[in-house]
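Standup notes
- HV: blocked on the assembly model, inputs below
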Amino acid sequence: MSTVPEELRYSKEHEWVRVDGDVAVVGITHFAQEQLGDVVYAELPEKGATVRQHASMGVVESVKAASDVYAPVSGEVLERNIKVIERPELVNQDPYGDGWMVRVRLADRGELQPLLSPAAYRAHIGENAGTGGD
Amino acid sequence: MSEAALLRTPLHAEHVALGAKLVPFAGWEMPIQYPAGILAEHRATRAAAGLFDLSHMGELRFRGDGALAALDRLVSSDIAGLAVGRARYGLLANERGTIVDDVIVYRLAADDLLMVVNASNVAKDRAHLASRLPAAVPLADESLATALVAVQGPRAAGIVAGLAEDGSAAMLAALPSFGVARVRVAGIEVVAARTGYTGEDGFELFAAAAGAPPLWRALLAAGGSAGLVPVGLGARDTLRLEARLALYGNDIDETTTPLEAGLGWTCKLDKDFCGRDAIAREKVSGPARRLVGLVVEGGIARHGHAVTDGGVEVGRVTSGTYGPTVGANIALAYVPAARAAIGTALAVRIRERDVPARVVRTPWYRRTA
């Protein structure tokens, strides 16, 4: 499994976004969960809540520390992943799959533009892109 | 302190080879976790065995005629009554009756005592002790020359004994809790003590620095098939907190007293020791606050978080974590004595929200075997 999947966009705060029409699925990256260590608690915004790009929308706590989860896009929360609240370790085990956090109805597709491409995110975390990344 | 100034234990290269995440701790570069992670390391220690590098801990040695009597006047517990080959937990207190450090004193021979102190307190303890010891009892700081490796967990004793030669294996097997003996493990001369900081059975093995790497490698190789894994300071903290073992600098310090901390049992008030009078006075009046165990519903309490009652701050969290074996968010906190009863409903302020918490019986974890 790639640690930076090609089909996603990324924030500098280590969230990923999967866009399907006007809906975005959001989670935290493999790099982020590795830095956190074992996630043992998660707080996510409820259905119907409004999240704002770059503002805190939730918290994940590892044994050692609490970290904010920032919304990479603005919009209305359509669903939060109850499984992650019940079993926070899913964030470590499958950050791009079962460890997803919220589905958001995009308020402004223009907000996707400044998000990082996989290559730019790899550079951001100091990972060698392997394909002539700068 | 800059990274370059950090001390390294004799096992530093072993940690690097194992892929440990190293962090600064009390002036040392120490493994906080290995690739398996804190939860896996915690669970392995409870189910099988964990291997810990504790070489950062301080070792102070007292030899000579009056050593036993002199330490009895400086440590809160009964040191004069300590038999050869036995160890005892106790406190160093100051004249105000607050806690300078928590220590274990090992009586290795009639006139030979070893005191293990917290790494962060070595210099402070030395000054505290040196100014109060009689001239006839010299204090030797052996911290840098001494490595300390702990093996903890239900399979720890079998793993250690399996690496000892016949005579040593029998001595280890017969060693009671808080017993201490000189033995050979994996061909290395060690002082083996049946002590620990995890709530499990196990040994702490003191060795000369040069003996530590072969000892560590032999334990890992021999214990691997029994489920032994290396464990970092992260899981050491969750293990000790579930067992309600105090951490100096978090739960106890020079602003806290033994009675507040629930450590009155370590104070032998019918003898004379530094801090005794102040502690005896507090015993009469009763401590104004107490260190209690909490279970927190909705978020993890951390050191420094406020404890509230009806929206009003009434205390402070000193340690908090998710307890992997307990399966709940647990914390220690100082609260007013009137709010310390088991079952009292309180709250912990986490991210500006008062999250429900309840005073519960401790320890949260007690081994069954």
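- HV (later): unblocked. Chain B has three domains: 3-57+145-242, 59-123, 288-369. Chain B has nine helices and 19 strands.
- Next: hand off to the docking folks.
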